[in-house]
Amino acid sequence: MALRYALLAALQEEPATGYELTQRFRTYLAHVWNATHQQIYRELGKLHDEGLVTAETIAQSERPDRKQYRVSEAGETALTQWLATPQPRPATRDPLLVKLFAGDNLDARVMARELAELRQQCEQRLAAYREMERTWFRDPGSVPRRYRLQYLALRRGILGAQSWLAWLDEAEREFPSTDDS
């Protein structure tokens, strides 16, 4: 459900096409919300049907026409109402943790490989977040409040990645990459 509000927030900042939104979700918004190309287009259609966004068709000479979406007045009202309502934290649904819960049945080598892959993903994510920090937030204290709040969201992503890496240090001691069991 929150995807719709992530889209409204992104469009409130700047009108965009579905493709442009997909790119933002892969880069600039990666630490905020994860959504596929199909999910974004499906939700944009719903938002448009509900009158929360408008779509302007822009003709292109050598490419198919594109639709640029904007938040409508009704969309701004819906976003404002959603922002004023406390949201529950998402439930934990982590297959890795279920595997650990059933730990006596784990093949240590298989788990060691999975943890190594997770470490690589976390390191890549942290590097991407650090690059965003260097690129967009060189001096967070000197930017308007809107961007300081976006920086705060990015900091949560950075701290989350660092926390996963610290946890992996502990987990990998239980599942060393060589079979020491």
Task: Please specify the SSE layout and strand pairing.
Elements: H1 2-13, E1 16-17, H2 18-26, H3 37-49, E2 53-58, E3 66-71, H4 73-83, H5 95-101, H6 108-136, H7 145-174
Antiparallel strand pairs: 1-3, 2-3
Helix pairs in contact: 1-4, 2-3, 6-7
Q: Could you explain the architecture of this structure?
A:
This protein is mainly alpha-helical. It has two domains: 2-83, Winged helix-like DNA-binding domain superfamily/Winged helix DNA-binding domain (Arc Repressor Mutant, subunit A, Orthogonal Bundle), CATH 1.10.10; 95-174. Helix content is 61%, strand content 8%. The protein has helices at 2-13, 18-26, 37-49, 73-83, 95-101, 108-136, 145-174; strands at 16-17, 53-58, 66-71. It has a three-stranded antiparallel beta sheet with strand order 1-3-2. Strand 2 and strand 3 (66-71) form a beta hairpin. The longest helix is centred in the C-terminal third of the chain and has 30 residues, at 145-174. The protein is elongated, with a radius of gyration of 20 Å.
Task: Give the beta-strand count.
Answer: 3
**Which sequence of SSEs, written as H and E, runs from N to C?**
HEHHEEHHHH
Strand arrangement across the biggest beta sheet: 1-3-2
CATH superfamily (homologous) name of the largest domain = Winged helix-like DNA-binding domain superfamily/Winged helix DNA-binding domain
Give the overall pLDDT as a whole number.
Answer: 91
Strand content: 5-15%
Major sheet: size, sense and barrel closure? 3 strands, antiparallel
What is the 3D form?
Answer: elongated
Helical run tally: 7
Number of structural domains: 2
Unreliably modeled segments:
none
CATH architectural category of the largest domain: Orthogonal Bundle
Broad structural category: mainly alpha
- CATH topology call of the largest domain: Arc Repressor Mutant, subunit A
Alpha carbon gap, first and last residue: 45 Å
Radius of gyration: 20 Å
* CATH uppermost class of the largest domain: Mainly Alpha
